[in-house]
Design goal:
CATH architecture of the largest domain: 3-Layer(aba) Sandwich
InterPro entries: D-isomer_2-hydroxyacid_DH, D-isomer_2_OHA_DH_cat_dom, D-isomer_DH_CS1, D-isomer_DH_NAD-bd, NAD(P)-bd_dom_sf
Mean pLDDT: 98
Family: Belongs to the D-isomer specific 2-hydroxyacid dehydrogenase family.
Protein name: D-glycerate dehydrogenase
CATH class of the largest domain: Alpha Beta
Number of strands: 12
Strand order of the largest sheet: 8-7-6-9-10-11-12
Strand content: 5-15%
CATH topology of the largest domain: Rossmann fold
Structural class: alpha/beta
Order of helices and strands: EHEHEHEHEHHEHEEHEHEHEHEH
Keywords: NAD, Oxidoreductase
GO molecular function, one term: glyoxylate reductase (NADPH) activity
Helix content: 25-40%
Bound molecules: (2R)-2,3-dihydroxypropanoic acid
CATH superfamily of the largest domain: NAD(P)-binding Rossmann-like Domain
Number of domains: 2
Low-confidence stretches: none
Length: 321
């Protein structure tokens, strides 16, 4: 008798090795075009498949989760962040949800560091000048950035990625680290001081790096916080676009109220406001924090580990709901 394999929909392309593993175990539908599915397609999938393997570009809201005739029993998200999934509704509906933490911690911290250095050394404006053929001569005074050694790095959200970023900045760059985290953090293997409020980070840090999960009803770093930044401060975000009031940040950058920013995430990805794209004092990346072949493969494999455990009634390695 032929064994019935669970039907799995993978919403976006994954590295080859992950797709091969999925195909060997499941009745899998892959997305060869790699185009984001519409809400209608996601709803239809909820009634047709046993499992979804989505990622950050799929908004799995209550409406989709409550699709009449829903068959999906597990959503194995490829990503550590899961603010794209309404986990409260998933819980009520009895749908399991998992994520892929740890495997992307170093890669994301590397990109945070890259943005800290790019922002403080004004590399976007420098490269643009060169590419536009406006670099006429070596100069000792043009385009000067700020050194990071001995400056204060303020981390907002001292979880795995916040810690990996802070460790690199402290031990690799010689920055002094302060951080805000909702719960108390002890036992760090590098020097860092916890402060009691986001405002304290805003008023004292030279570089602020956000490492919070996102998905809140309002931005964690709001216009009031941004107003408190030093005029020489740089803001870095590799977490989620909705962690920051993007409009207030754009205003602060456009008016040179702050020195600059480095952003890998945005509120309405992939839409980037024109005004932001035109600014020279911000380095912009298209959400590439975890974008290495090794890491994206590891994320995909971990999502499949979650699926395998679920369908064999074992403990899922990274179950959220
Ligand atoms: C994550 O894993 O959350 C990254 O942002 C990619 O989605």
């Amino acid at each position: 008798m032929r064994e019935i394999r669970p039907k799995v929909l993978v919403t976006r392309q994954l590295p080859e090795a992950v797709e091969a593993r999925l195909s060997s175990t499941y009745d899998v539908t892959l997305n060869a075009d790699n185009k984001t599915l519409s809400k209608k397609q996601l709803s239809a999938a909820m009634a047709e498949y046993d499992a979804l393997v989505p990622t950050v570009s799929d908004q799995i809201d209550a409406h989709i989760l409550q699709t009449p005739g829903r068959q999906v029993r597990i959503i194995a998200n490829v990503g550590v962040g899961y603010s794209n999934i309404d986990t409260d509704t998933a819980r009520v509906e009895g749908i399991a949800v998992s994520n892929t933490p740890d495997v992307l911690t170093d890669a994301t911290a590397d990109i945070a560091l890259l943005l800290i250095l790019a922002a403080t050394r004004h590399t976007y404006a420098a490269e643009k000048k060169l590419r536009e053929n406006r670099w006429s001569d070596f100069s000792l005074v043009d385009g000067l950035g700020s050194s990071v050694q001995g400056k204060v790095l303020g981390i907002i959200g001292m979880g795995r990625i916040g810690q990996a970023t802070a460790r690199r900045a402290r031990l690799g760059l010689g920055m002094n680290v302060i951080f805000y985290n909702r719960s108390t953090i002890t036992g760090l293997d590098f020097e860092a001081t916890q402060v009691g409020a986001i405002d304290e980070v805003m008023t004292s840090a030279d570089v602020i790096s956000i490492h919070a999960p996102g998905g809140g009803s309002s931005p964690l770093v709001n216009a009031g916080h941004i107003a408190k930044l030093k005029p020489t401060a740089y803001l870095i975000n590799t977490a989620r676009g909705d962690c920051i009031d993007q409009t207030a940040l754009i205003e602060a950058l456009s008016s040179n109220r702050i020195a600059g920013a480095g952003l890998d995430v945005f509120t309405e990805e992939p839409h980037i406001p024109d005004v932001l794209r035109k600014l020279d004092n911000v380095t912009l990346l298209p959400h590439i924090g975890s974008a290495t072949l090794e890491v994206r493969t590891a994320m995909g494999m971990l999502a499949v580990d979650n699926l395998d455990a679920f369908f064999s009634a074992e403990t899922m390695p990274c179950r959220i709901v």
